[in-house]
Amino acid sequence: MLWFKKKKYPVFWNEYLKKFKTSQPKTIENTRFVVFDTETTGFDTLKDRILSIGTISIFNNIIDVSDSIEVYLKQDEFKAETVEIHGILKEGNLVKINENDAIEQFINYIGNAVLVAHHTAFDIEMINSALKRLNLPKLKNKTIDTGILYKKLEGKKESHISLDVLCTEFNIPKHDRHTASGDAFMTALLFLKIVSKLKQERNVHYSDLFRTSNNKGLI
Asked: Does 54 map to a domain?
């Protein structure tokens, strides 16, 4: 007698899982990085909801604008006080889709790419909360936080530094700030500039991007 039934996942999730069964490239140049950002109704990852998701990809140190998505979600949860930040109205003229479709589109897009964001933990948790509402597991992708990556540079010890501050430091124009796609593009530029500066300071390997301590080299 079977004591449990094998969980049946939707097709898009099974296809997503399959992509992790093949060995991944272990060089920075041959890795597809997906830089993403979420705009949300607030900062409570359990109660708040995603308003929009913006992504852009990097491959071989080049930002591929054609390989990107931007989706806006229908708002069942609406907080008028946050509109001043992200500018997304409950109705408005934007084409919006439901959360289920938005998450499926995002999962189909990212595949097994390495996910990059500024202060990654929040954006990842917002996606994982949406996945949980679909009765799906958490994301499997490797992740990189540009805030943590920045601290690998010589003499950089700040514990929590904003995207605005880093954009100023690296001379990155702050166009479309606080839109998901705008922030994703700025973060992509920031990621490439940090990696470039790291390479000027020392030898940088693929695995170094994921280490969180500076005891030895980037390790």
From this structure: yes
Instruction: Determine, yes or no, domain membership for 2.
Output: no
Strand spans (E) along 17-158: 33-40, 50-59, 62-73, 96-97, 114-117, 143-145
- The enclosing domain of 198 has a CATH number of 3.30.420.10
pLDDT tens-place string over residues 80-116: 555 444 444 445 557 789 999 999 999 999 999 999 9
Task: Measure the CA–CA gap between 152 and 195, rounded to whole angstroms.
Answer: 10
Contact 163, 139 (CB under 8 A): no
User: Which tokens hold the place of 154?
Assistant: 């010589």
Q: Is 32 a residue whose pLDDT tops 90? A: yes
Residue type, 186: M
Tell me the residue range of the domain where 41 lies.
27-210
- Contact (CB, 8 A) for 139 and 111: no
Query: For the chain, how many structural domains are there in total?
Result: 1
Phi first, then psi: give them for residue 37, nearest 5 degrees. -150, 150
Handedness of CA 180, 181, 186, 192 (dihedral sign): positive
